[in-house]
Design brief:
With about 210 residues, this protein is of the alpha/beta class. The chain has helices at about 15-30, 45-50, 70-75, 90-100, 115-130, 145-155, 170-175, 180-185, 190-205, and strands spanning about 1-5, 35, 60, 80-85, 105-110, 135. It has a single domain (about 1-200), classed as 3-Layer(aba) Sandwich (Rossmann fold), CATH 3.40.50.300.
Length: about 210
């Protein structure tokens, strides 16, 4: 069983969006997925409640970070092959729990000044835990230089930046309203392709 943690100490960077879309893509790739939502607002779990289909390959549950080891142990015994942990912002203890449990960590970052500045804290937590982590640029405008400028600024911090960017796409917005992922809303769309590319890259990065 592999564990991916999506962590950022800043809110509004798209952790839940990446979590549910990666989970759906993994389930579509014949993984048995557990999404663990450590966020008090339970954004990922609420999205799961909206879903109309009963997909036994994809389960999302809320949990407190203190119970994460027990949740993961139960998931392994139940046959889960891939776990995605969605974390809360502004909670160092929850972030550390998720990072320590992970085989790989991704840090979503929007291409904006305050988001870029906040990344260093999460990188430090991953380094303290001796875990591999990479930044994923999220909500990047499809046109203009913001993505390239943000990547250059992040690399100056010494951070690894994923080669796949997730852009602002209306498919993400429309899909979330009905408990769907981009893959289920528009299987051939650009949003779906970007998430698939990111998922494949993450799988290659995992030990």
């Amino acid at each position: 069983m592999k564990v991916l943690s999506i962590v950022s100490q800043k809110g509004g960077v798209g952790k839940s969006l990446l979590s549910v879309n990666l989970a759906t893509t993994a389930a579509n790739s014949r993984e048995t997925i557990l999404g663990v939502d450590l966020e008090p607002q339970a954004s990922s779990a609420n999205w799961g409640d909206l879903r109309e289909d009963d997909n036994d390959k994809l389960t999302i549950q809320s949990a407190q970070h203190s119970r994460l080891p027990k949740v993961l142990d139960s998931a392994k015994k139940s046959g889960a092959t891939f776990v995605i942990i969605d974390t809360a912002p502004h909670s160092e203890s929850a972030a550390l729990s998720a990072i320590r449990a992970a085989d790989f960590v991704i840090i979503p970052c929007r291409p904006a000044f305050f988001d870029i500045q906040s990344v260093a804290t999460t990188i430090d937590l991953a380094n303290i835990s001796k875990k591999k982590a990479s930044i994923v640029l999220n909500a990047v405008p499809p046109l203009g230089p913001m993505g390239d400028e943000a990547e250059a600024a992040l690399k100056e911090l010494g951070a690894e930046v994923a080669p796949v960017r997730i852009h602002q796409r209306v498919a993400f917005v429309h899909a979330q309203k009905s408990g769907k992922a981009a893959l289920e809303y528009d299987a051939e769309g650009k949003a779906t392709q970007e998430i698939k590319d990111l998922y494949r890259w993450i799988k290659r990065k995992m030990p």
